Amino acid sequence: MRQLNRSLRLAGVGALLLAGSTSFTSAPLRAQERATTRPAVMIEAYVSRARLDATFVGSRMQLDGVGARVLRSLAPLPGDGTSGFARRLALGAFASYAPREDFALNVWHYGAAADFQLLARPLAGRIDPLLSLGGGVFRTRRDLAPSDRLAPLCLAPMDLPTAGVPASCRRASQIAPRTVAQSDPAFSPAVGLRVGVLPGLALRAEVRDVIVYSGAPRHNTELATGVTFIR
Questions:
Q1: Which of 14, 75, 126, 166 counts the highest number of beta carbons within 10 A?
Q2: pLDDT in tens, 114-154
Q3: Domain boundaries 38-145+177-230, CATH class
Q4: From start to end of the chain, where are the E strands?
Q5: Domain spans of the chain?
């Protein structure tokens, strides 16, 4: 009986040691698995500089704007049964705004967005090359008011003798402005790069061709850079 008790105690100690060694060796694997998991949600804010096609204002011009993008991965967790292609895909929405005060111009661009990560895993654990596509609406609004620098507009009365009756004058700024607005469908393919800098934080840069279908395809090259918050 004494020998049986001793054997049971030794077996218990061995089981505890085996469980501890298994837990110790699997912890780094679990940490590595979490490190390679794609983020579930990405919230991005960016600034942009675009070259607007001459169709919209009569000449090509530079536009500086701001924007935001929210994306959700199709497969945020490992081992969920999705294919390799779907695991690299994220879908969401975007919106941007670019004003040009000297032309009284405002431009909005908004719609759906999709990102595809070219590599199964980021280079060096933090560098992700991307292909991106946006589809939505490109809206421009311009107030065509004459400039205050123009000479006053003077009109003489037409139904009275003009002798001794001064012309009625008013400055061009008092003339009601005419607003021209249009909304066109747009698609915007892009190539980009996202680089992780801190846990939950990355930098992103991209080159985008905003193709606006206004009578014919109008190409507007856009450069953008910003930050990505990963949740």
A1: 75
A2: 999 998 888 988 999 999 999 999 999 998 765 544 445 55
A3: mainly beta
A4: 41-52, 61-73, 89-100, 105-117, 127-143, 153-155, 168-170, 179-198, 201-214, 216-230
A5: 1-35, 38-145+177-230
